[in-house]
Write a structure and sequence with these properties.
77% of the residues lie in helices and 0% in strands. It contains eight helices and no strands.
Length: 179
């Protein structure tokens, strides 16, 4: 737990890392809103009978309609997931910024290996989102209705995995740069 607090203090003390947290959290939450409300917003924008200003106003209201889009538990999951992913991205940025040159110069990673290393310390929840799409393609998404909370458990498991990934990355950020 000390390493998590130490790495959080490291990324909060760096101005660029704070920006990465804020920007990535906002972008991730906006991407979630695009997934949830994007089609309705595009339908509102296609109303030719309304003047442009009214269409834009209605589209803005539709896009940011959080009260009808999320329940309390899914809103907590969305905010917590976006924030944890933002912290995770900022820790990965700080780690690569502080130790990336050493890693690249050592010849440990090259080309595709570097890309896989960057993706490996990224968001674990993205893997569960990809998994749900793949499983939905094969018809397994209907099985989520059999779960007691209709698949909300998957979101909680994703948050737990994201916290574990953040914690393990915090250990790397807080560790001294020695072999």
């Amino acid at each position: 737990m000390k390493q998590l607090i130490a790495s959080l203090s490291i990324i909060s003390s760096r101005k660029d890392s704070r920006r990465v947290i804020i920007i990535s959290t906002i972008v991730l939450f906006l991407l979630l809103l695009i997934v949830e409300n994007g089609s309705e917003t595009s339908q509102v924008l296609s109303f030719d009978l309304l003047p442009l200003f009214e269409r834009l106003s209605l589209a803005f209201t539709t896009f940011f309609n959080i009260s009808d889009t999320f329940t309390t538990s899914t809103l907590i999951l969305a905010i917590l997931g976006s924030l944890l992913a933002g912290i995770n991205i900022s820790m990965a940025y700080t780690y690569m910024k502080s130790r990336g040159d050493i890693i690249i110069r050592s010849g440990l990673y090259s080309g595709m290996g570097l890309i896989l290393a960057i993706l490996g310390i990224g968001c674990v929840a993205c893997g569960t989102a990809l998994l749900s799409v793949v499983l939905g393609f094969f018809g397994f998404s209907a099985m989520l209705n059999l779960l007691p909370y209709q698949g909300l458990e998957i979101g909680y498991i994703g948050i737990i995995f994201l916290f574990i990934a953040t914690y393990s990355l915090a250990q790397k950020v807080a560790a001294p740069g020695v072999c």
